[in-house]
Amino acid sequence: MATPIVANPAVRPMPKRRSPGEHGVLDGDMIEKAAAQAAAEVLGPPEDPDDVPFLDESMLPEVVTELVATSDEQRDQLGRLATRVESLDEAFQALEESLTERVNLARPSRWTWEFLTQDETAQLWRETRWFVDYLIRRYPLISEVSIPPCWYRHSVAVDELSDLYAAWREAYCSSSRPSTAMTAWRDRWLWPALNRLATYATWRECKETRRHVEPAARQDLTDDDFDRFVEANIAKRPRARSGVMPWPTKPSGKEGSVRGGIASARADARLAE
Fold first, then answer.
1. Is 178 exposed, middle or buried (0-12, 13-18, 19+ CB in 10 A)?
2. Please, which residues have CB within 8 angstroms of residue 246's CB and are 6 or more apart in sequence?
3. Which pLDDT belongs to residue 119?
4. What is the rounded CA–CA span in Å between residue 52 and residue 4?
5. How far apart are the C-alpha atoms of 157 and 165, rounded to whole Å?
6. Rounded Cα distance, 127 and 168, in Å
7. pLDDT (tens digit, 9 = 90+) per residue, 150-192?
8. Cβ neighbours around 108 below 10 Å, total
9. Could you tell me if 23 and 31 are in contact, meaning their C-beta atoms sit under 8 angstroms apart?
């Protein structure tokens, strides 16, 4: 006989096994398993494995209902966890794409004038003009470093000013929190850029005449001998990288030590030549 559980009036001692006829259409093993599971959830596992509590068969529908509710609750929890996992997976993919884009040196950015489309070029021209006009209004510059109205005709100035604008965006538009990047933008980017333009933008005559003057000094593009020179330079080089370096290399094991010694000796001999 099983030990009765007094804490719950619905629980009474029952024989460990009953014939199927005593339960009518209910199977005795099924009743015992369901009752044991419900009792274990409420009371915890019994100290003696033989002292398994049994419920009155009249309580079985209530037990089954409770088990179904528990199952539904667990299903809901699994659904919420699946949603969170899916959200985390999307966030991870976005982060991975962002990092990949940052290190993808084969893809020109929107600041690279040479490779922009028509729409991208129009957008960057609008933004750069806004920034230059803002800069002129905000910083009344002395004539030595001032920016003439024809700045957009000087390609050196276009690159310098659009890059300066990109640095300004990073300093002032990436966060609302106070940052030393705002001061660093002037010290590190603004004043050095204006001084470089005063030296290299070739717009001195533009300022003096207050109209655009094409610079007298012009540079020619790379000459036609480039291809022949490069082909000859490539032909002189080895097809495979040599393992012999003019500096000591770290040996790997006994064999590496011997090879490293030979390589070092060969390198020393070559340097001596």
1. exposed
2. 267, 270, 271
3. 92
4. 9
5. 12
6. 12
7. 999 999 999 999 999 999 999 999 888 888 999 999 999 999 9
8. 13
9. yes
